[in-house]
Amino acid sequence: MQKWRDIFLNGIVKENPILILMIGLCPVLACSSTATDAFGMGVAATFVLLCSNILVSLLRKLIPTEIRIPIFIVIIATFVTITDYTMQAYFPQLSENLGVFVPLIVVNCVILGRAEAFAYRNTLLASILDGLGMGVGFTLAIVLLGIIREILGAGTVFNVKIGISNPATLLILPPGAFIGIGVLIAVWNALRKSKGSVSSPCASCGLRQMCHSSKEGECEALGQIK
Fold this sequence. Notes:
Blueprint: H1 2-14, H2 25-30, H3 35-59, H4 68-90, H5 92-98, H6 109-117, H7 124-154, E1 156-157, E2 160-161, H8 174-194, H9 220-225
Antiparallel strand pairs: 1-2
């Protein structure tokens, strides 16, 4: 039970794709001007991540190693198409707001990275928990950023006015996204340090899942590359 819990919480806390690994930032910066748009992007990315993890894990013994990346992209593109069409049909305003960033989920490095680093090497249950954890971590980060930007930049949250008379419009513009994500990452790291959590040198490395017998302070994957 501890193992499954750790896999799920890994994507939320220890390896949050946005606040720790800092990958897949393009949709986070572009789609977080409001909390509603941020939540929509988070749910869409989580759905694609979870479904692609499931299918890659189920087919991992059948996928040839030499062509695994193109196959991963085809799998991911299938679920992105389903997500895009569903959003256009049932949430047209959200689809219009998110624009091209929904189709661009195909090349989101969080999703492709988890397919390669985790789902292709682990069981179905572990891949489901990993997909959910990473998806929840991604959604929490983008929604938190969206809430902060919307409150301070527009005086609303989820399109509900909260009484701020002179919001800083800059925060709902592109520069506000960079300012907001920088502050969030800084606060997150400060909280982790205050709790005394010390991570290994490989904690934020995308190749960490490929290491099996690394010594403390050394990276087996980098050693092989050298």
